[in-house]
Design brief:
This protein is an alpha/beta fold. The protein has 8 helices and 7 strands.
Length: 228
């Protein structure tokens, strides 16, 4: 049976510095238009990456649906949704979809759909209120385990079963090259063992993973299950 996401009043809290910096970074109409119009179409490489990520996520969605045994009956959450890159695909597989992003500009630039401005560090949703969560290209923005742990705990709290997310792995040529060159982009790759430790602490276990370019690219996509 599908479930419709339910909102609850946001509790007062002290915002962490990095999430607020990140929100301001993306609270820009020019950047939002860039993500909507040409971020994933501007070059052959961008188009290949976009196509591969869409295929990876859709494959995981189909596996989730198959494991759940109720095709098309999933209540889904896309956080951060950006300008809706995954929206059309997700809507083909779920009964309901809620899109959340911390940036109002990103939401404004996104296609019309049920949306909410909120931080992944404190989601204004009830426990176990969705079946599936997509969390794309967020974790690598946080340097500390504590920051990632807060996000992972929130995702595990809200999801009744499945989470698909991406993170940057440090065991590849791209991460090694950036380290040797001293090139810092505000993105933080971590080891696979560190990732496993953090998801376990959040009550999650890994079902499967896919690499954009194994051994070359930092980006890794992972299918997670909320532990019983």
């Amino acid at each position: 049976m599908s479930r419709t996401p339910q909102s609850i009043p946001e509790k007062p809290h002290d915002e962490q510095q990095r999430p607020e910096q990140l929100r301001r970074e993306y609270e820009d109409s020019t950047r939002a238009a860039h993500y909507r119009d040409d971020r994933w179409t501007r070059s052959p490489r961008a188009r290949r990456t976009n196509a591969k990520e869409l295929a990876i996520v859709e494959g995981f969605v189909q596996q989730c649906t198959s494991a759940q045994g109720e095709p098309g009956a999933q209540a889904m959450l896309d956080i951060p949704c950006g300008t809706g890159r995954f929206r059309n695909m997700l809507q083909q597989h779920g009964s309901t979809l809620m899109s959340i992003d911390a940036s109002r500009e990103m939401l404004t630039a996104a296609p019309s759909a049920p949306q909410l401005q909120a931080s992944a560090h404190q989601l204004p949703l009830l426990d176990n209120s969705v079946d599936f969560i997509l969390c794309s290209r967020l974790l690598h923005h946080f340097e500390t385990s504590a920051e990632r742990a807060t996000v992972l705990a929130e995702l595990a709290r809200v999801s009744g079963k499945w989470i698909v997310l991406s993170y940057f792995d440090n065991a590849n040529f791209q991460a090694w090259r950036n380290k040797i060159r001293g090139k810092f982009r505000g993105r933080f790759p971590i080891s696979r063992s560190q990732f496993q430790s953090e998801i376990s602490a959040a009550g999650l276990k890994e079902r499967d993973r896919r690499y954009i370019q194994r051994g070359l690219s930092e980006q890794v996509w992972v299918w997670l299950e909320v532990k019983a």
